[in-house]
Amino acid sequence: MTRTVFYSATTLDGYIADEHDSLDWxxxxxxxKDGPLNYDAFFAGVxxxxxxxxxxxxLVDHLRKSGEKWPYELPSWVFTHRALEPVADNIxxxxxxxxxxxxxxxxxxxxxxxxxxxxxxxxxxWAEAGLLQELIVxxxxxxxxxxRPLFPRPFDLRLVELAQNKAFACxxxxxxGPRT
Length: 180
Ligand SMILES: NC(=O)c1ccc[n+]([C@@H]2O[C@H](COP(=O)([O-])OP(=O)(O)OC[C@H]3O[C@@H](n4cnc5c(N)ncnc54)[C@H](OP(=O)(O)O)[C@@H]3O)[C@@H](O)[C@H]2O)c1
Description:
The structure is a single chain. With about 180 residues, the chain is α/β, with parallel strands linked by helices. The protein has one domain (about 35-170): Dihydrofolate Reductase, subunit A (3-Layer(aba) Sandwich). It is built from five helices and ten strands. The protein has helices at about 25, 40-45, 55-65, 100-110, 120-130, and strands at about 5-10, 15, 45-50, 75-80, 90-95, 115-120, 135-140, 150, 155-165, 170-180. Strand 3, helix 3 (about 55-65) and strand 4 form a beta-alpha-beta unit. The longest helix is centred in the N-terminal third of the chain and has 14 residues, at about 55-65. The protein binds NADP nicotinamide-adenine-dinucleotide phosphate. NADP nicotinamide-adenine-dinucleotide phosphate binds near residues 9, 82 and 117.
């Protein structure tokens, strides 16, 4: 059955980007691309990607500057209230609650998982709807004091895997449910 996973890097104090949506703090960190909980192994199990508008626009800006193409051949969903320009044919813009779109996204993912790329508010929306099963975080050895939060709602999680990948502490959590 298709599961939904939020896989993200974060600072130690729980931010996935700084206040200006910069990831400069992340790109300078050392990691082993074949190490524990690595991206390539995770991505091999992904059948569809989901993201919020800020993450999408950050990616589009990054691609424009680097001259690269949209990195996902997988069906991709972007949650937005705006009429954004798609940069690839496999991008679908939607708005509303995750549950309104989950069936279509899960069907597109087939027997693989759905990856919530970010941000944290969208991931928490999926969790609140009971549609997020797992959280995988690469914790960078840095604090920012402010920024875009990793997971801005009260939830209980269960640690199921913990490892070091060079500079990063890597952890995999099962989402237990909202804190009561
Ligand atoms: N560290 C990492 O590994 C990592 C991973 C992913 C992202 N990031 C970065 O983290 C930051 C994430 O920013 P964020 O958390 O503020 O935002 P986000 O989730 O990427 O985008 C938030 C926006 O998405 C739209 N949205 C969210 N839910 C919606 C819904 N249910 N219906 C319609 N629209 C919806 C809204 O935009 P509108 O209403 O304006 O359209 C909202 O303002 C970005 O800078 C991104 O590049 C970092």
